[in-house]
Each structure stands twice: as C-alpha cells, then as structure tokens.
C-alpha cells in the first residue's frame, strides 16, 4: 500500500447503486438509499496511518464523516449543511464533485438537478452562473417541514474553490469524483486545485471508479485515496456482486484483491446493507480490511445502534447525515 499521510486538523462521509442498465442509472439509484436513511465517504487526524491500527472497538479512532455536510439537518452540500457539520464536531466534510458546462468544479450529488434545486436537466448542461441562479434550499423545507428554516430558501450551489476559500485549512474535505463517465477529465483540475491551496493533508479523495483513483494517484501519489464499493444482491441466488466489478463478494476477496486496491488506495468505503436488508459486510470482513492496513469507512449510517455495532467491529470512520448523533455515540462510549 502506498505511504499513508497524517491529516493534521482538529475540526470537524452513499449513495449509489441499484439495478440500472448503465452506470448513470446505478449512481442515481444509489442516491435513493441515502434518501431512505435521511430523516441522502476523522476524529483523530492520524487515521491515515493504519500501521498503528488499534483493536476493534477503539472508538477514539473513529472519524465522523459528515455526508454532504450535516445533510439530515440542512440542504445537502450547502453552506448551511457544512456550517452545522463543523459545529457538530465532524472531522470530515464529504462532498460529491461534478463539472459544469463551463468547466467549474461544483459540489453536487445527483447528475440531474431537479431533486435538490428548482431546475431541470443534467448539471453538466448548465454554466456555473446558471446553476447559481437556482434555489437549492427550498426543496429541503418542503421535504422536511419539521426541520425547515426560512434561511435555507435560495441556498446556492457551491464551487469547490469557494468551499476551500470559505472554510480554509481548518476543515478536512472528503471529496468524491462523481459520475466520471459524465464528468470526464475532472481529476487533473481537482488535483491542481488541492495542490494550489496546499491542502494535500486536508483532503481525502474517494470514488467508485477505479480508473479515476488510479489517475489521481499518478498525478499526486501523496494524496489519500479511498476506493468505494457497492455490492448488489442477486434476487434469485442471493449472491453478492460489486456493481463495477472492482472486487468479488466480501467473503471471496483474496490477499491479491486487497493488494491490487492497495497499489493505489489507502482505504475502502462500503455500505453495511443492501436495499432488501441483506447485510453485505460483517465484523470478520472489517478486521480483514484492517489487517491489510486499510482505513475502513462505512456509508451512510444514521441509526445509533448501527453506529455502535460498527464501532465495535473496528471501523475507522462512518459517513452519516447526522454528525451530532455519531458524536454523541462516541462521547457516550468514551
């Protein structure tokens, strides 16, 4: 595995897949799991050094990864969600990054903009100026009236550069290269931006797309990378299949499979269960990942009992829409 790098900030992670016929369908369907969880990939900055990996249940190593910010409390990927995540002691702000028609990197999850804005169509068909005229907050008030806030109305879609400028190096950013078959060649400008800001130690980059991570590793092998995985359950056989054929089923993964990922990535991000409730990982698999010196980050965990169970299994980070819940769980366990 390539050398891990210490992340040194004290402040402060879904998503996808289904049974579509192409990658775009899978990524948009995976979003529905997150929406079902919502009521949508670190506490100690040394999570990236797994040579010091602790035994299962050492909750002090578990990182709070705010999934699109505190997206259970405010419109996802907006300043409102990011601000609340920071206030709730999140260690990482997770953001999906896509490219506008005129080449700007923006924080936005869906390929289609209609779910979380008052616009229609694909995000890549809009210029930045057009996107920032949209209202990306009122949908949240309509969807979650018990959490509505008049201030959310008119929330703007943010560029990655704006986020870096606004929150600076006191925040850690967990960035996903999103829908790379639509957002072609996004890796180089993203890496250049991270380097220009000097945020190599403030950033983790994740992706479901192996080729995207390999490209980033070639551009800058000091960046911390996480391979996201999503296993689907075959309705007839019950067999698990990773939707992009990155790996076999968890129980069938070999040392060679882990070594292949370790050539370019430092961590693995995966889900706990499938849509039908089938759990796709267990404690033994978590420990196997730890034994191979991977960070182990599970998405998107909003139930406190699941948080406690996964912490006991030995995960090193949890993506959640409710960073305050995970913070409370960690404090209670301490």
From TrEMBL:
Residues 36-57 have a biased composition (Acidic residues). Residues 24-57 are annotated as: Disordered. It is an enzyme of class 3 (hydrolase). Its EC number is 3.1.4.46. Residues 62-330 form the GP-PDE domain. Residues 24-35 have a biased composition (Low complexity). Keywords: Hydrolase. The keyword Ribosomal protein does not apply. One of its GO terms (biological process) is lipid metabolic process. It comes from the Bacteria. GO terms for molecular function: glycerophosphodiester phosphodiesterase activity. Pfam families: GDPD. PANTHER family: GLYCEROPHOSPHODIESTER PHOSPHODIESTERASE, GLYCEROPHOSPHORYL DIESTER PHOSPHODIESTERASE. This is Glycerophosphoryl diester phosphodiesterase. It comes from Salisediminibacterium beveridgei. The lineage of its organism: Bacteria, Bacillati, Bacillota, Bacilli, Bacillales. The gene is glpQ.
